[in-house]
Design brief:
4-stranded parallel β-sheet; 4 helices; 4 strands; 20% strand
């Protein structure tokens, strides 16, 4: 199938990377940063993944973006597709979403790479 690159990022650390599809997760989905017990964790932690993926609407968005990637991949000029998804700091929502999308797209037969641009950065005080 198609090569898909997913890049998670934090808007507080710079501009979104170039992509065919760019998603802003900052305003519509639960932010684990507001929970003191999750703030210093990342999407590599199971509790953060559960908090993000348990947010109403997230699984529907994963499915919708997967459908959009499949549409790009089936076009007459099919080629690699890049998806960028961002949250505030790039440590929680964006990388958890990116991994869920990667899992879905891999199950659809795509070759998927994931880069978490800002997940390693320190927590932003806000």
């Amino acid at each position: 199938m198609t090569a898909v690159e997913i890049v998670s990022f934090g808007y507080l650390h710079g501009e979104p990377p170039p992509a065919h599809i760019t998603l802003d997760l900052r305003h519509h989905f639960r932010d684990p940063h507001v929970s003191p017990e999750l703030r210093y964790m990342t999407a590599a932690d199971e509790l953060v993944q559960q908090a993000v993926l348990g947010t109403p609407g997230i699984t529907s968005l994963v499915a919708a973006v997967a459908d959009a990637v499949n549409a790009f991949a089936s076009g007459p000029s099919a080629g690699p597709v890049t998806v960028a998804d961002g949250c505030a700091g790039g440590r929680h929502r964006a990388p958890a979403f990116a991994q869920a999308l990667a899992d879905r797209l891999a199950a659809d037969g795509h070759t998927v790479t994931v880069q978490h641009r800002d997940m390693h950065r320190p927590v932003v005080n806000r």
